[in-house]
Amino acid sequence: MKISGAKMVVEALKKEGVKTIFGYPGGAIMNVYDELYKQNDIQHVLTRHEQGAVHAAEGFAKITGEVGVALVTSGPGFTNAVTGLANAYMDSTPIVVISGQVPMSLIGTDAFQEIDAVGISRACTKHNYLVTDAKELPRIIKEAFYIARSGRPGPVHIDIPKDVTAQIEEFHYPEGISIPTYNPVTKGEMEQIQKAIQLIKESKRPLLYIGGGVINSNSSNLVREFAKKTGIPAVETLMARGAMGYDNPLLISMVGMHGSYSANIAMSEADLIISLGARFDDRVTGKLSEFAKGAKVIHVDIDPSSINKLVKVDVGIVGDLNFVLSDMLPLLDEVEPERFQEWRETIEKNEKLHPLKYEKVQGVLKPQEVIEKIGEMLGNDANITTDVGQHQMWAGQFYPFTRGRQFNTSGGLGTMGYGFPSAMGVKVGDPNRVSINISGDGSILMNIQELMTAVEYKIPVINVILNNNYLGMVRQWQTLFYDDRISETDLSAQPDFIKLAESFGGIGYRVETIEEFEKALKDAISKNVVALIDVKVDRRENVMPMVPAGGSLYNMILN
Amino acid sequence: MNQNQRHVISVIVKNESNVLARISGLFAGRGYNIESLTVAPIPGEELSRLTIETYGTNEIVEQIEKQLNKLIPVLKVIERDDFIEKEMAIIKVPIEENLSDFDALCRAYNGKIVNVGTNAIIGMVADDPKRVAFFIEAVKRFHPLEIIRSGVVAIER
Ligand SMILES: Cc1ncc(C[n+]2csc(CCOP(=O)(O)OP(=O)(O)O)c2C)c(N)n1
Ligand SMILES: [Mg+2]
Fold it and tell me: What are the residues facing A159 on neighbouring strands?
């Protein structure tokens, strides 16, 4: 049957099993919107900003492991979507963003709402396409979904000129796929795996360094088994929270700039670092020349370019963690957990010496307390999203995560405004769990318009605003490194968050004690409507410990 | 071995729009340098071959190769230190210069005079990149008006 390019888009999405897309219409993409109107299989969620649409698609992908989809128009519609693409790129999240483009005859003429979209997205996508012929559309969409989800996942952008969505052609959605130039590796080389096992057997102070790849590949269970079988302790990056489970005796804590003392010391004193889906980001390693000086390094990653990029490794294994870990596990029989007893005791001592902690003060609500309270009330029953800043780090430090994908945060790009829309995507993807966005008074305003979307589509995200009247994380750096010169970070000017929520048809709370907070959260959950909980917390609290940027992991500011 | 060294990288890519932008954008975005770059279709195939001459440490060149391989339309990345390399140069010198001396120099570098006009003589050479560099030194005494280098092309032995 011959159909239009626009209908092909909708049919292809159906073939990919897409049920929900997030988007915002405009001139160049109207043909596709017209086709959406004519069908009922795909629900479209009209966000109130294209950035919100792409973050929502990412939140959906993060919780489900499926490809998230966003649809935007040309020009400003597309440029508004760029932050979302960049965020998904840095955090390796599989999404497909489809944008309209001016008709082919107008490309290059500075036409109304024309922008070189693929030129812009090239630097922040895994791959992108400008479709110049509707005959190519089925193949391109098929490829886009495959590329987004396979290998190291990432965002793919498809730009479609308006005349291509109008073009009528025969539609056959390809069954199989073959991209001769793209063959992601899945199984690790056995020879390298043997070498890794040998290093583990020889080591005295090995450490599992767990990154977001473990979450993306759903290999948490294998990682837990690995740790249990060998007795090797583990640290998690921000992106890997939930992989081991907070109550796992072998989990030390988060590592890096705001990692725990014992996690960072373990990283510095290990004689073997086993990196699983982590990428030695500067927020984790601190000063590279001082990083893990006495350690050999085994690095397992799906992306060959992550290996030897920053840290010279002794054994590099390119592959999917599911395959690599399954190959490794039977070879670990000879590794006796007793071998590392002394090492674990040292770590335990350090944990007792400087646990992750904060000072409770009578009459002052500490932000960490609020996060602990959410954990206590909801634990495994909530999915936790964050914005970016101090509140994000406290969430990483203090929430009792129990499973992979429970934590959704902007790690690589650090995008303020990511939280609320992506927490909507999480709620759509996992409607039976409470979706909480732990946010800041700065971040929440960066996509506050999504209140309208959440009300309209009944997506009851609960935004917990840890309100310190500051761009807190920047204020913390100013306090510590700029003699407390508070340059443009004082957010004393604030909206009335209750009225703000109510004006959209949501619900708002203002709380100052932990009891009030507990009541508000309970109430918000029972009301089942989008909520803003404005929590007045200690203004001057700092995130501790802290490794100053560019410093050695050894040199932590502890309080 | 942590020194900036010259490396030649051959990249086989699918012939599609944007592919050159992807590659040059990768070099620009990640701060790698391009000393020279040549690109042309491979006859009879839907592929093109790029030859990139770059300077970097071994670590950087390892990253360049890996990053290139990550680009979807890249089929193959070849890095060798024993490529057969050739480069061409064309040189314009004033008509007043000694024609036969200039011709002799070009011939010494596997070239010849390709045009003599009213104002200028044009010669060409095609040789190993290192020798082309020598030639460009040597040709200075003919007061060249213009020198154009083609960039390196390379093939595996
Ligand atoms: C879009 C964007 N702009 C600027 C920054 C820089 N930045 C990082 S944290 C932060 C402060 C965030 O303030 P808030 O949301 O109130 O969180 P808090 O640190 O106070 O918990 C800023 C401005 C950023 N990460 N993202
Ligand atoms: Mg704040």
Answer: A99, A130
